[in-house]
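Sample entry (172 residues):
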Amino acid sequence: MWLSNAVVPNSDGSDRAGCWVEVVPTGRVRDAGDGAPAGEPVVDASGIEIDPQPHSGVAEALLDAIVNGDREAADALYTDDLVVWHNHDGVERDKAESLELISAIARDFVSVQATDVRRDHLADGYVQRTTFHVVGAGDDESIDTMMRVWVRDARITRIEEYAVGDIGRTGS
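Predicted structure, serialized as tokens:
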């Protein structure tokens, strides 16, 4: 059985976050990017056995759409009745508004990079923590985000995004 996104101490006393840890019987550790071994059960933080595969493709595709400002890719991922909520304004946006914000990424920024991407897969979607590094006309910003994403039939139905940083110009 494997526990996802565990924090494991290194021999030098520092911590290594986002690892897969085999809970029984050996306590083996795998780096986050390696994923759980094929065919082995995965347990989420609440102790429920889950299958992370159904939403992995959706999660990667949405991250790519955000980073690239790809409106068409996001449109293909979203249900028609999508709702997106942001902590910085408390407003629920519909699909059209969210797609316009995704388009603005390509228009308003020279580059966008996502680092420190960590995901917890859930039965009905996933939680993703990411740091976005954006370069605009003469300024650089880092924005720490956490998104709770609900997925049904490989399409996104709802996103709740929490961001810390200069988010006045951004949002998904």
